[in-house]
Structure formats: C-alpha cells, structure tokens
Amino acid sequence: MTKWAVYDSHTRSFGKWIVTVVPLTSVLLLSKPPSWVSAIFLVSSKVHEMRNRTATDKEQSPIFIPWSSVAGIGWPAVPRQFEARILALQYQLDQSQWWEAEALQRLQLRQMEMLLVHAERTVPFYRGRFKALAGLKRVTMEAWRKIPTLLRTDIQDHGQDLVSRKMPEGHGRIREIRSSGSTGRPISVKTTDVTQLFFAALNLRYHLWRSRDFRGKTAKIIRPISSKSQIKPQGWVPGYNSGPMVSLGVTSTVAEQVAWLREEDPHYLFTYPSNLRAILDHCQNNGVELSNLCGIATMGEVVEDTLRAACEEVLGLSLSDCYSAQEVGIIALQCPDHPHYHVQSERIFLEILNNDGTPCGPGETGRVVLTDLHNFAMPLIRYEIGDYGEFGEPCPCGRGLPVLSRILGRQRNMLTLPSGDLIWPLFDSNNLDQYGPVGQAQLVQRTTEELELRMVVKKALKPRDEKCLRKAVLDRLGHPFTLNLVCVDEIPRLANGKFEDFMSEVK
Ligand SMILES: [Zn+2]
Questions:
Q1: Which site from 222, 295, 351, 464 is most exposed, i.e. has the minimal number of CB atoms within 10 Å?
Q2: In angstroms, what is the span from residue 191 Cα to ligand 1's centroid?
Q3: Is-contact 129 148, C-beta < 8 A?
Q4: Could you tell me the distance, in angstroms and rounded to a whole number, from the CA of residue 505 to the centre of ligand 1?
C-alpha cells in the first residue's frame, strides 16, 4: 500500500489519499486491458478521507496518466485517436495561455480569415456580407468590425442558409444542438466532431486549472437525464482515467437532490447557480453537511457575489464558474487565482460592443458578440448571444487570455412546488413552437398552485393547440399546476434589457 497526498490549491485544503497498488499479475489475470491501467491508480475506500487530513509531503502529489488503448501498455500511455487529439490540443493550450494578448489576437485573425473564406464560399447567408473586407490581403481588426453582427433572429429565420453547403475535410460528423437561450425562442445550431473535440480539450483545461483530483467522484445535477440517477462509468476527465461520475436531473426537488448528494457523497458537484443556491439554503436550514465535497462548479447562469459568499459560508468552499452556451460551448473559464474569467481565445473571439457598435474598453458594459473560430458547419460570425459583459484589466496571474470582469446574462428563478419544495424549472429547453403557433413565451409562477404562460402567438390558438401546449409545459415541469394560457402583444424585458423566460412571483 502506498500513501499519497493531494493538495487542492482551489479549496486551499490538504488531504491525504490512500492508494492501493494492485499486484500486476492479479490484474492481468482478472481484467482485460485497458482497465488494468486504472487499477494501478485504484483508489481505496479511504478516498472519502481526502478532506480534513494534513499532508506531510507535498512532493507526493498524485500523478495522472492518460488513458491507454494498447493492451499491456499503461505508461507512458498510448491513447486512442480521440484522446490523442484532446491531449494534442491540451499541449498547445498549456502554452498559449501564457502568450501575450497581441500574439493571441494575431493568431485569432488568421483563423478568422480561414473561417471567412469558407463562409463566403459555401454558406448562402454570408454571401455578400463581407463587403468591408473586399480587396484586403489580410483581415484587420478595423475591417472585421465592419462585418454586420449575427442576431438570434437571423438564426431563427435563416437557419438553413447558415449551413455550409460544402464542408472541408476532417471536420467529422455534423450534429444538431437546439438551444432556447435567453430569448424564449429556440434556435438550432449545427456543430461538428471538431467543435466537440475543442469542448473536450477546454473541459480538460478547466479541470487542470482547478487542480481537481481526477480520482475523485463527481456529481452533476443538470438537465434531465433519461433515468432519475445515472452513473457514467467512463469517468469525467477527457483523455484520462478518472473516478466515477454520477448524474441527477435538475428537476428533482431540492430535498431529493440533497438526500441524493448525501448518499453519493461526491468530491465535486457541478450544477446551475440558481440550483446551487437552493441546495445551500436547504443545507443551512436543515443543518445538512456535505463534508466530503471539495469543489463546486457552476455553469449556465450568472453567478452573483452573494452566491460565492453563501458557498463559502455553508460549505466552506469557493465555487468555480464556467461561462458557456449550448451553441458555442465553453466561452470563458474563471481564473484559477481570481474571481474574474479568462476568455478561451483559442476557441472563441469575444467582443463587447457599445450600443453604437464600437468596442467597449475595460470597465464598460456592452453586448457580448462571439465568433466561433472552428464551427465550419454553421459559422457563427459576430454572433450577438444576448448577454452583456465587461472586460477587465490584464490578469496578475500572467495569462494573456483576455479578462472578463463581469457577465450579465441569464439568471433563473426557482419554481416553488405546493409543498414549498423548490425545483429548477425545466421550461427553457421546451420548444413550444412544436406544439402551437407560438413565438416568444414566458412562464410566470403566480402562486404555489398556479402558473401563467404568456405567449406572443402568430395566429389564434385552437383548442387543440391549447391542450398540447398545456400538456407540454406541465409534463416538463413534472407537477400538476393550474396553468393559464394568456396571449399578449409583447413580453416586456427586465430593466437591464434582458429577457427572462421564467419568473416567479412567489415570495
Ligand atoms: Zn488569471
């Protein structure tokens, strides 16, 4: 038996792991490669002791070996093609994060040129849209800013014209992602194997930035999954052997989630900020401790400072956040050393614009405009995602990746059940236009029993439409509320200009 220690710089806690090294011969006899590789790093049942212990020797940091695909070879690992590509990207990301901002932008411009040429030639929507670049040998930032921005309504209304008619080689299969985002009307975006690969590599960067211990157990409480609780045996770290990952649908009540967390006893928890807040409140009000947790990660919504403070207070942990969107993947990751975010410039070109379309300087709030540098199936060039943000000054950590000091995006209210339990409302992923002639829609909880679905309709609803809409919404929420359908001319935005598709008036 070998004793190893682990230091989690994120949570500032030391812990000791006890790792059992299984005799090689018995592993070879009992299991088929490549599972024996992970057996070398088999974590004993003592894994839950990783917290609250004191390390005596920092030199004994755990070593993680990538997943090996060749029988009998565990170290150095020989990965499969997909994993090898993730690691090849990670190798580059590891270096580029330290490059100067100017060098990163120069390389982004070269990548943007390739995307523009492809889009102009093969994507009908973009034909004639890059007039500002005519005659230029190289794309300059000045010329780039003259390209009109792409709105969500453009994707909704011209989705097919945004799809490339001729894909270059090597981008792999094309997938479709549907996102309802923050406007209440869904969009459909095509992505590729290559964009998935970048997602995996950035996901790996995220784990490395947070110094997460790959042997830990991870729990995700996110979008609905087919069964109420799921275990993903292959782990949670792209390209590496890792501990198990368990998932629970976010539509479970908060009390159910906390009971599940107590049972699963994970080291890491990934969920939405609004859901985390409800979990923290529940833990605090009921004196529940989740003592095994050593890392909390959020995504999908804005994280308020008050949530960070509540996380510290209730769980004694600082949370880490990832700014992402379904249609483009990871946009920015929280700096390992600071609360602000670093734009993932190797993947996304992010601009923040004033109302007149000029770029905002540090400290100025403006519209977030994104360019996905690698999606050649459906190029999103200067895409106005609907969020607002603010650039910060360069980060003292030394990374050249631009700093986002603030993101003002979507925030969710929680849905209150008649019992008083809170659940994350599964409304935004529901594509209402499938059930009736509905444009924009907003769900408002008036009381613990009654909800109102406000809709801007394209034509009068028939009784059948009403029945289908009512069923679709209530099925997704999973509870038999009274649901009133109300047709309106317009759904007002919030004071900050954002659209909220679920509001709760329950105090
Ligand atoms: Zn930093």
A1: 464
A2: 29
A3: yes
A4: 39
Which residue segments constitute the domains of the chain, with CATH numbers given?
A: 2-78 (no CATH), 79-204+333-391 (3.40.50.12780), 415-504 (3.30.300.30)
CA of 402 to the centre of ligand 1 (A): 9
Torsion of CA 312, 317, 320, 325, to 10 degrees: -80
Ligand 1 centroid, distance to 398 Cα (angstroms): 6
What's the pTM?
0.75
User: One digit per residue, pLDDT tens: the chain, 507 residues?
Assistant: 333 333 333 333 333 333 333 333 333 333 333 333 333 343 333 333 343 333 334 445 678 999 899 999 999 999 999 999 999 999 999 999 999 999 999 999 999 999 999 999 999 999 999 998 888 889 999 999 999 999 988 998 998 999 999 999 999 999 998 875 544 567 889 999 999 999 999 999 999 999 999 999 999 998 765 555 555 556 899 999 899 999 998 878 889 999 999 999 999 999 988 889 889 989 999 999 999 999 999 988 888 888 999 999 999 999 999 999 889 999 999 999 999 999 999 999 999 998 788 999 998 888 899 999 999 999 999 999 888 889 999 999 999 999 999 887 655 577 888 888 777 677 754 467 778 888 778 899 999 999 999 988 888 999 999 999 999 888 888 888 999 999 988 776 555 444 577 888 887
What's the CA-to-centroid distance between 97 and ligand 1, angstroms? 10
**In this structure, which residues have their CB less than 5 angstroms from ion ligand 1?**
335, 395, 397, 399
Q: Is the Cα dihedral 130, 133, 134, 138 positive or negative?
A: negative
Q: Kindly give the distance from the C-alpha atom of residue 341 to the centroid of ligand 1, in angstroms, as a whole number.
A: 7
Q: How many angstroms is it from 342 CA to the middle of ligand 1?
A: 6
Q: Distance, CA 335 to ligand 1 centroid (Å)?
A: 4
135: left (phi over 0), alpha (psi -120 to 50) or beta: left
Sign (positive or negative) of CA dihedral 335, 341, 347, 349: negative
> How many angstroms does the Cα of residue 308 sit away from the middle of ligand 1?
18
